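FW: tagging you since you asked about this chain on Friday. Here's the raw sequence from the shared folder, copied in full. Didn't touch anything.
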Amino acid sequence: EIGYNNAEEAEDGAVALNMLRNGKFDFVVSDINMPNMNGFDLLASIKKEDALKHLPVLMVTAEARKEDIVRAAQDGAAGYIVKPFTKATLEEKVQKIMQKLAATA
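HL: got it, structure written out here
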């Protein structure tokens, strides 16, 4: 909990995509390593759908591989964060992304 209301958690990317399609969300934080549909596949699905493609997606992973960071950026992720991280680090990253989006709106 970092000061935002109505945060929901999904056990995998497929469930998350279904939740996004059937709900109203302002931001997505997605782990890259998930069962059934990984974070990259979820990101691609979000960016393909007109109703969802506006959503900023912050990718989270335990691995700091350069190719994953580059892929996330190329695929349209708004940001990338490596575990472990503190609540303050997550909050700062989300705030920066939201401020950047507000400035370009």
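FW: The beta strands are 28-31, 57-61, 79-82.
HL: agreed, and The helical segments are 13-22, 39-48, 66-74, 87-104.
FW: great, closing this out.
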